[in-house]
């Protein structure tokens, strides 16, 4: 009533507006929370998709796992689980954001079908 400035949850409002602008709907919530605040405005022109990778952070990983996980991107967490370097590997499956442009390059074949995984070493064939 006195006109004292009320603290609105600005981040919440911004996030909602941001999502509406992208037309992502409810499924976009997780994506928005993962975007660093500094790039949120720039992200309106770039859309991201999730990829899954194997991570051995904090764990003792063998050379095979380290070399493997550095290059591999998986389209679904299930594919990551089944795409381990070797039997008995217990690396974590972690989610990562990839620009749609890259995602398409990694997972969409020329004929429009989808790959399960991508290995960055394949680009230099
Ligand atoms: Zn290993
Ligand atoms: Zn492993």
Characteristic key phrases:
about 120 residues; alpha+beta; two-stranded antiparallel sheet; about 20% strand
List the helices and strands and how they pair.
Layout: H1 10-22, H2 29-34, E1 48-55, H3 63-71, E2 72-74, H4 77-82, E3 92-99, H5 100-107, E4 117-119
Antiparallel strand pairs: 1-3, 2-4
The structure holds zinc ion (2 copies).
Protein model, in words:
With 125 residues, this protein is of the alpha+beta class. It has 2 domains: 1-44, no CATH class; 47-125, no CATH class. 34% of the residues lie in helices and 18% in strands. The chain has a two-stranded antiparallel ribbon with strand order 1-3. Strands 2-4 form a two-stranded antiparallel ribbon. The protein binds zinc ion (2 copies). One zinc ion (ZN) binds at residues 56, 61, 65, 84-85, 89, 91.
Short description:
The protein has 125 residues and is an alpha+beta fold. It is 34% helix and 18% strand.
Sketch the topology as an H/E string, one letter per element.
HHEHEHEHE
Mean pLDDT: 77
Assign an overall shape: globular
Quantity of strands, as a count: 4
Query: In which order are the strands of the major sheet placed?
Result: 1-3
What is the CA-CA span between the terminal residues?
A: 69 Å
Rg value? 19 Å
What is the overall number of helices?
5
Strand content: 15-25%
Please indicate the count of domains. 2
Helix content: 25-40%
Helix-strand makeup class: alpha+beta
Which kinds of small molecule does this entry bind, naming each only once?
Answer: zinc ion
Low-confidence stretches: 8-15, 24-31
């Amino acid at each position: 009533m006195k006109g004292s400035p009320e603290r609105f949850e600005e981040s919440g409002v911004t996030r909602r507006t941001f999502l509406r602008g992208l037309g992502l709907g409810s499924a976009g919530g997780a994506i928005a929370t993962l975007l660093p605040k500094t790039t949120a405005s720039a992200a309106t022109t770039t859309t991201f998709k999730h990829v899954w990778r194997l991570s051995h952070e904090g764990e003792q990983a063998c050379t095979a796992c380290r070399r493997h996980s550095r290059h591999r991107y998986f389209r679904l967490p299930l594919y990551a689980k089944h795409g381990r370097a070797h039997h008995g590997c217990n690396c974590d499956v972690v989610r990562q954001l990839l620009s749609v442009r890259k995602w398409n390059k990694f997972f969409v074949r020329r004929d429009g079908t989808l790959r399960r995984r991508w290995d960055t070493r394949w680009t230099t064939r």
